[in-house]
Input
Amino acid sequence: MSTALMYLAEPSGLFSVALFVIAVALIALLAGSFWLNCRMRSRAPRLPRAEEQPHMPQGGPVRETREIREPAEVPKVAKGQHALTPYELTHMSTRTSPSQKRGRWHDGGGGSFGSGGLGHH
Output
């Protein structure tokens, strides 16, 4: 064996020092992240107290309302005028339909594909 290989095989204090420096760097990184987290939490707004939490309305919980709605008609354009563009239309609201009966393609079906039935026979 050559002398160079003997020196490489010999335990060196340099490796121990390198491991120590890496360990100190990791500890410093963890301590810095802990300090940064504490600093960010101190700047954050405090959590609301129990009396500041939202409360249920006096009439109890609000439930959803199911109703059939129909759209407002698009305004007609007179002959000779240009057609309305989308930005010229106003907010097109909906209104409650006079008939609250759900539209069906046929009795027993909802009118959508893939509803699980065998279809109309």
Q: What stands out?
A: The first strand starts at residue 69 and ends at 71. The mean pLDDT is 81.
